[in-house]
Each structure stands twice: as C-alpha cells, then as structure tokens.
Amino acid sequence: MKIKYLGHSCFEIATKDRKILVDPFLILSPDYNIEGVTDIFVTHGHSDHLGSAIEISKKTGAKITANFELANYCASKGANVNPIGIGGWIQYGWGRVIAVNAAHSSSTPEGNYAGLACGYIFAFGGVALYHAGDTCLIQDMKTIGELYRPDVALLPIGGRYTMDVEQAVTAAGWVGATTVIPMHYNTFEGINADVDTFACQIRNLNKIPLVMSVGQETDF
Hints:
The protein has helices at about 45-50, 55-60, 70-75, 140-145, 165-175, 195-205; strands spanning about 1-5, 10-15, 20, 40, 65, 80-85, 90, 95-100, 120-125, 125-130, 150-155, 180-185, 210, 215-220.
C-alpha cells in the first residue's frame, strides 16, 4: 500500500490494482491525474473535503463512499455512490472500511444539511489506516485505539475548525498508531500550525511523525 499526500486533507491510497482518494480537495495538486481512480471517500460535505469528488466520479466511474445524506446529494449530481452509516463496515475487493464518529458540522456547497461528519478506518490486509476527517478531540478515539488498533493515523492539527497541535498529540496517544501524519493545516488563514512542534511532541510519545510535503509518497 502506498499513500500520497495531495494537500489539506486529501490523500491517494494506492494498492496493487486500486487508486483510492480521500477528501479530494485538490487546490494544492491542480495537475493531479485522476485517470484510474477507482474509489472516493468523503468525510463530510464542506467544499474543502467534498472537493472534486463528484466531477471525478462522473469522469472515471469511481464510487463515492459517504454518509447517506451526502451520498444522496452526490447521486443527485450524477455521481456513482456507496452510502455508509457511522459504525458500518463495507467490504471492498481490496479490504474493508468502517465509518467512525467525527465531531464537526457538515453541509453541501449550497448550504444544505449533509448528514453526519465522519472519519474512516481502512483495513488493507495487515495495515489499518485511520483518516480522522475534520474533528475535535473526542472520546471515540480511545475506542478506535482499543477496537481497531490503527497502524497509521492521519490527524488534523490546524485548530479553529478541528483539533490543534496539542489536542492532536493527545489524540495520537489515544488512537495508538505507530505512525502519525498531520493534515488540515496551513492551507489557508485560520488553520496555521507549527508542524515542527507537533512532530517533536509525537516523537516524545515514542511514535513516528511523518510530515508529508504535497506530492510525497510513502509505502506501508
């Protein structure tokens, strides 16, 4: 499995025959090649997470996995969808995914209700990856650590709309992942964060901070 950071909260996850996008807001990767995208996961309806999901789905045929209300919205725009509920597992040919709680608001670009915000846990064979979406620090992260034991955690650190650095470090301890990747920071005014401080505090937990630059790819 390979993970590529495309900026903000957007990641590409590549397996042998699958190309998966999470929260495809591609403002920092405008030249990203969508050819071959097979699956899209959206954590909530805000435009910096829904991003280009609908357009990519319509061009590639990729299914958008999202909560029921957001999936229906995407379907109404012509996208292929795969609705999921909080706590529900969906099996895919490459593994399985569960939607988990995230404490955050969610609306469509038109401002209408878009269901519950969520995060996702991806189970790829022997590797479990947690994408927290937009969220504050929540007790569910302890449960995620106990039940799902993620190896890799993608955590927002920008503050204001999500956890800040200090809260994300606490989340990393609760979730228990060995490798922690920061996201949702420094994209625009209001979510600036000191990623060096975050990395230092993650190392103090005896975990590996992986601060990825846009376009960087790593293997797991």
